[in-house]
Amino acid sequence: MNEVGKWPRTAAVFGSTGGIGAALCTQLAQGGCEQIYAGSRTGKATGTSSQPFVFDLLVEESIAAASAIMKVDPPELVIVATGALTLADGTGPERTLKRIDPDAMAKVLAINTIGPAMIAKHILPLMPRDRRFVFAALSARVGSISDNGLGGWHSYRASKAALNMLLKNFAVEMARSHPEGVIAGLHPGTVDSALSEPFQKGLPDGQLTKPVDAAVNLLDVLARLNPADSGQVFDFTGVEVPA
């Protein structure tokens, strides 16, 4: 994490009790972040320096209420660490178009695309106009259209591709009034978390990353981004993911 000026002084993590989200909160605290807004459905605290809040990714009113809490002291860094690959009922990514189900697809889009968009809608207006801020959302390399050579996973791929487009849109719009801001997507790699657990079997040695290592990698990438990077998606090494 960048030590210059101990940035960020304040941060917000939406999805703070997930594998990556919890690790991000821990690393931010260890890096000297003074105020960490830690959001989850339960409102569980994630450390002594965190201020827990409750939000439901699928309920806009809860996101608006959470954002209002941060209005007095807005975060310099916002990370949306939410997402779903397998739904709560066990429905996983479709391997063929024959398995596409409209209800399941709608749920995946609601979680991976619409929810983060609602967070952006209510958080981005709080961001400072005269200094740097970063708004980042967890995306995935499979959301890249040009890098898609395998197909399948239709709803998940589409939801992340749509998220990436929205992040680009937000970056273009915010640059007009907030020239120092950065809005970006992050590909964390394959992290040992509940999201990836059903798909870990058979992974090559070294491909599965611990949440703490993923958090360190992602925070290092975010610390190095500048306004020229806004609107892009980057992997955990800082390499841009093609659109």
Reconstruct the topology from this structure.
Blueprint: E1 10-14, H1 19-30, E2 35-40, E3 50-54, H2 60-69, E4 77-80, H3 102-123, E5 133-138, H4 154-175, E6 181-187, E7 190-191, E8 208-209, H5 211-224, E9 233-235, E10 240-241
Parallel strand pairs: 1-2, 1-4, 2-3, 4-5, 5-6, 6-9, 7-8
Antiparallel strand pairs: 9-10
Helix pairs in contact: 1-5, 2-3, 3-4
Protein architecture, described:
There is one protein chain. It contains 5 helices and 10 strands, in the order βαββαβαβαβββαββ. It has helices spanning 19-30, 60-69, 102-123, 154-175, 211-224; strands spanning 10-14, 35-40, 50-54, 77-80, 133-138, 181-187, 190-191, 208-209, 233-235, 240-241. Strands 3-2-1-4-5-6-9-10 form an 8-stranded mixed β-sheet, sandwiched between helices. Helix 1 (19-30) crosses helix 5 (211-224), helix 2 packs parallel to helix 3 and helix 3 (102-123) packs parallel to helix 4.
